[in-house]
Structure formats: C-alpha cells, structure tokens
Amino acid sequence: MPGRHPTDYIAGTDTMRAALLTGIGGPEMLEVRDDIPVPRAGRGDVVVRVTACGLNNSDINTRVGWYSRSITTATKESGYDKADVKDVGWSRRGLSFPRIQGSDVVGRVVEVGEEANPRLMGRRVLVDPCLRDRRRPDDPALAGYLGSELDGGFAEYCAVPGENVYPVSSHLSDVELAAFPCSWSTAEHMLARAGLRQGETVAVPGASGGVGSALVQLAKLRGARVVAIAGVSKLDEVAELGADRVVARQPGGVPEAAVDANGGPFHVVADVVGGDDFGGWLEALRHGGSYVTSGAIAGPIVELDLRTLYLKDLTLHGATVYDPRVFGDLVRYIEEGSIRAIVGGSYPLSNIHAAQEAFLTKRHVGKLVITI
How far is 216 from 228, CA to CA, in rounded Å? Predict the structure, then answer.
C-alpha cells in the first residue's frame, strides 16, 4: 500500500538536514540546517531520499537574483542589491522564501502518494527537473523548476511529482548520475531545437561546463562535427570528450578562429556564454543556420545586427522548457552507456558554500556535485 516507508526514513525524527536559501543575496543567505521538516508525498507525488545533487549556474543565479530583468551583467557573486524579487525565478514569476535549491536529484524513492505509481517504491531514480503543470502540461508558460518553484535536492529528502521520476539501471555511481539531469536535458533540448543532424557542423562556446561538455558528447552522438571552445588549460579534457577541433577562449576573435578551425561556417551554434561574442557567432553561421542558447554566463545583454539575421536567413532559438521525451531519451542514453558523466569534483552538503565558491572560479570541467 502506498505511503510512508519507515525503514527508509530517518528513525525517530521528522526533521532533516538541508541547505536553506532564505532570500536574495550573498553566500550568507544559504544556511545548512538540521531542523527542516521532512516532506511528505502528495497524492500524485513521491518522496526521494537524496544521495547526490548536481550544482548548476541556476543555483548561483537564483541566489543572487540574476534572472531578474533588472540585472544586466555576467553571472557573478553580486548584483542582488539591484534584483527585483518579483521576477527572480527561472519562470520569472518571483520566488517564495525560504527555498531549498538543487535541480539534479538522484536517490531512492521512500514514499509514494496514493495516485503515484506504487512500483516506484524503493527504486533508484533520476528526477526530471522541469515541472509541468498537471492540468496543462503542454503550456510552457506554466512550467516551473525543481529548486526554484519547488524545493529541490540540497536536502536529505525531496518531494516531487511522480511523473518526473525515472528509474535508472546503470553501473554509474550516484555522484556520476547527478551530473546528468539539468545540464544534459538542457543540452539535448538545445540540439533538438536547432535540429542538428548527422554530418552537420556545430560550434560549442563554453564547452568545459556542465551544459557545454554535454553538448559535445550529444552532438557527436548525432554524428555531427564539433568545434569546442574552452580555456587553454581545459582544451585536452574537452578534446577527450570527442570534439573534432578545440579552440582556446581568448579576448576577441574567437568566432573567427572557430570558423577557421572548422574550415568554414557552421550549421549550428549552441551557446551558453552570450556576451560580446554573440554577434560574431551569428556571422559564423552559414546561410540558413541556427543559433540556440540556454544561458548567458558572459552577459545577457547583446548587440544584434538585424541585417545579419535576415540577410543570412538565420533562426534563433531559446531553450528551457522541453518535452518529457527529452528526459526519457537522456535516461536511455545513460542505460545504453552511450554517454559518460563528467564530474569535476564533489562536496558534502555541509560544504555547499565552498562548492559554490569553486563553481564560480570555473576551473573545473563538467559538473560539481553535492553529496547528501
């Protein structure tokens, strides 16, 4: 019978350890506490005992208020004094505090709501972080995100919709699995939006990050030719992901260098960087090419020459809310062993401040993961 599974809950207590975001601001707004109530499963929900949860740009962006339209700078540990709390969430509908962040949940199901699938009980699972409205799941304007509009995985337990839970059979560790959900579903969605096909060419700025390293592998899985851009110290690691050519990130001239490395313009640019190179990447596309973005770590405000857009018949795509089949495909890739996790380091929940500090330095390749 669905319900609480006492052997998998912390014996003798109704509280748990969690990292609680108390408002918009600096690291001091993130408090690790042991007195947070353990969540219970709603009618169609399940409770996951979290073992690992990946760290994302969105965790920093949400804490500092970067998603607010009032912030125009690159992702960094500041800006919250100008953030408008009414539009700081991923959905830009504002946030309520306190909030438990963390989108990349891996763990085991320990409670199943009466309308959720009872076969999920006890299963090792990945959680799809894109929360679709149950009444109108096809309306992206109503979507929310785990760790933003709903408490996430920087906690010992997390309650999530049953339809967002995917059992996974893999030899990978929980830490490795936690590298996948947010970044890889984003990357898969980006390439689907851009329509990248076998034999085509794609440029990947920011190829050493969570989304970027996923883009390299998923583009190769599609049979595309990949030119990856990363810092000089990371080029060898990015090349090992399967990139056909690697180009060093440097001030000025990166899109042009990428075109030279490719031997001509690209069918697709899959970008999470933005900033000053945006116009150059549009110039780096062939006629009829596609630019797709899911981030702007170098800055969200860019210059667009409309003549480049219309004279080259380009298509621009934003990529955030994806079809559930995207996450299903991702789980299948994991189980088939056709993609590999890239973990740049792991930290216990008690050291989440150090993890976020390390994340902001961008010295790692792949994902940083919080262990619970």
Answer: 7
pLDDT at 3: 53
Mean pLDDT of 233-245: 96
Give 120-133 pLDDT, tens digit per residue.
999 999 999 999 99
Question: What are 300-304's contacts with CB under 8 Å, separation 24+?
Answer: 300/71, 300/72, 300/274, 301/72, 302/274, 302/275, 302/276, 302/278, 303/278, 303/279, 304/278, 304/279
Gyration radius of the chain over CA positions:
20
Residue whose entry in the numeric block shows the structure tokens 């299948």: 332
Q: Is 223 helix (H, G, I), strand (E, B) or coil?
A: coil
So what's the pLDDT on residue 352? 97
Placement of tokens 């960094």 in the chain? 76
Q: Among candidates 292, 300, 296, 294, which has minimal Cα distance to 316? A: 292
Strand partners, 228: 204, 246
Q: Is the peptide bond before 118 cis (omega within 30 degrees of 0)?
A: no
Strands 130-131 and 157-161: unpaired
Please state, for a pLDDT cut of 90, what percent of the chain lies above it.
82
User: What does pLDDT average to over the chain?
Assistant: 92
Other CB atoms within 10 Å distance of the CB of residue 328? 13
Report the distance separating Cα 292 and Cα 242, nearest Å: 21
The owner of tokens 């799941």 is 137
Task: Provide the terminal-to-terminal Cα distance of the chain, rounded to the nearest Å.
Answer: 28
Instruction: Give the position of tokens 């599609």.
Output: 222
Q: Following DSSP, what letter does each residue of 241-290 receive, concatenated?
A: TT-SEEEE--SS-HHHHHHHHHTS-EEEEEES--GGGHHHHHHTEEEEEE
Counting Cα atoms < 13 Å in the Cβ hemisphere of 64 gives 19
- Look at residue 87 and tell me whether its pLDDT is greater than 90: no
Cα-to-chain-centroid distance, residue 179: 9
- Which amino acid, residue 212? G
Per-residue pLDDT tens over the stretch 28-81: 999 999 999 999 999 999 999 999 999 999 999 889 888 888 778 887 766 677
Instruction: Tell me: pLDDT of 27 over 50.
Output: yes
